């Protein structure tokens, strides 16, 4: 008896969903965090979001563009928060406390998105060409200005920025892996003191 010819794949007949984009992004974040970007597929993302695969492609060219977009959303927000806090009014202590508090609030506000950004930095930072408004460049520039003004000891702004950012980023990393309890905001005062110690060190 002759085998029947293989049937072509059936078209995706899911009805169009309103506000599909945020549903797609949340589903993608969960899969990217738990399975990894490489392992997740556009079909899985669409199924988890409850939308058609075509809906995903109406908003993004594919999985990689979606992942990069999610990374950049947090990266750009961090740049803005750091710049606003560190160039505001008040003493250095006030400014650093404001910057660290803003970072912690951003983490607690959407920890899934924050986690994806933090664990994906090595993968996606190469796509973010050095620019004047990325978080590291903003921090380096502000630290350089503080050194020039005599507010903190002179030194290498790039090294000081790396050390200061490392204080809060490592705390965020430890929270992702359940090594730091509670919301990150509750640790903000201690983190701010550590950052100030870095900045004021010779």
Written overview of the protein:
The protein has 202 residues and is mainly alpha-helical. 65% of the residues lie in helices and 0% in strands. The protein has ten helices and no strands. It has helices at 20-34, 42-49, 53-59, 63-86, 92-109, 111-119, 121-124, 135-148, 157-176, 188-200. Helix 4 runs antiparallel to helix 5 (92-109). The longest helix has 24 residues, at 63-86. The N and C termini lie far apart (85 Å).
Summarize the structure.
The chain has helices spanning 20-34, 42-49, 53-59, 63-86, 92-109, 111-119, 121-124, 135-148, 157-176, 188-200. The protein is mainly α and 202 residues long.
Overall radius of gyration: 21 Å
N-to-C span: 85 Å
What percent of the residues sit in helical stretches (DSSP H or I)?
Answer: 55-70%
Low-confidence stretches: none
| Overall number of strands | 0
Arithmetic mean pLDDT:
89
Helix run count: 10
Q: What kind of sheet is the major sheet?
A: none
- How does the helix and strand content classify structurally? mainly alpha
Large-scale geometry: elongated
Order of helices and strands: HHHHHHHHHH
Strand content: under 5%
Labels describing this entry:
65% helix; mainly alpha; 202 residues; elongated
What does the secondary structure layout of this molecule look like, with pairings?
Blueprint: H1 20-34, H2 42-49, H3 53-59, H4 63-86, H5 92-109, H6 111-119, H7 121-124, H8 135-148, H9 157-176, H10 188-200
Helix pairs in contact: 1-2, 1-4, 1-6, 2-3, 4-5, 4-6, 4-8, 5-6, 5-10, 8-9, 9-10
